[in-house]
Amino acid sequence: AAKTTDAFDPNPIVVVIGVNNTVVWVNDDTLAHTATGVNGTFDTGLIQPGASASVTFTTAGTYEYFCLPHPTMRGTIIVQEMPAH
Q1: C-alpha gyration radius of the chain
Q2: What pTM does this model have?
Q3: Which residues, at least 6 apart from 65, have a Cβ–Cβ distance to it below 8 Å?
Q4: CB-CB contact of 17 with 81 (8 Å)
């Protein structure tokens, strides 16, 4: 039985960065998916079932993304600056 749910989990992903931080997507589904930035800033390419892909974020901001083959799958990554000490 397929367990496709058209969802990214967790969503949103909140990342606090120093110099940079990497988000890893793991495909636990039975179909291939992508994590593709809405504004074209990043694209994992197709992640096959059981595989993973990563993107390193070096700039604070909000990054909305979706799956190219399944555009209703959407997510958000919120990248925050490391607090000053």
Answers
A1: 13
A2: 0.80
A3: 35, 36, 37, 38, 42, 74, 75, 76, 77
A4: yes
